[in-house]
Amino acid sequence: MTPPHLPRSDAGPGEPSLDVAELLRHARDASEFLKALAHESRLVILCLLVEGEKSVMELAELLDERQPAVSQQLARLKGEHLVRARREGKHIYYSLARDEVRAMIVALHAAFCAPSCGGK
């Protein structure tokens, strides 16, 4: 069943048809986005950044991981344009780069965390 917001591939004359090339392009983009999320540490980092920007050291302490390991995950997230960095003196602060990243993390939280947290 085709979702209501997508045109049907069996559309009749005069009805919009599904543009498979465009669908494939978007599927590729979505797949890359999901691959970047498909790592526990990266996912938790993004969850923590929903609350606001944090330094590498803050994230390392919250995750109980070594700073180089956290920096490596942040570099991957930055390379995928999911987070952005801001330098202030010796410290680099990270925040979410795009609204769709925040929306995805909020949706994942609602699906996987909220039920076990009493909806919080």
TrEMBL record:
Organism: Blastochloris sulfoviridis
Protein name: Winged helix-turn-helix transcriptional regulator
Annotated NCBIfam families: HTH_metalloreg
UniProt xrefs under SUPFAM superfamilies: Winged helix' DNA-binding domain
Record InterPro entries: ArsR-like_HTH (IPR011991), HTH_ArsR_DNA-bd_dom (IPR001845), Metal_resp_trans_reg (IPR051011), WH-like_DNA-bd_sf (IPR036388), WH_DNA-bd_sf (IPR036390)
Keyword tags: DNA-binding, Transcription, Transcription regulation
A Gene Ontology molecular function term of the record: DNA binding
Superkingdom as given in the UniProt entry: Bacteria
Domain HTH arsR-type intervals: 24-116
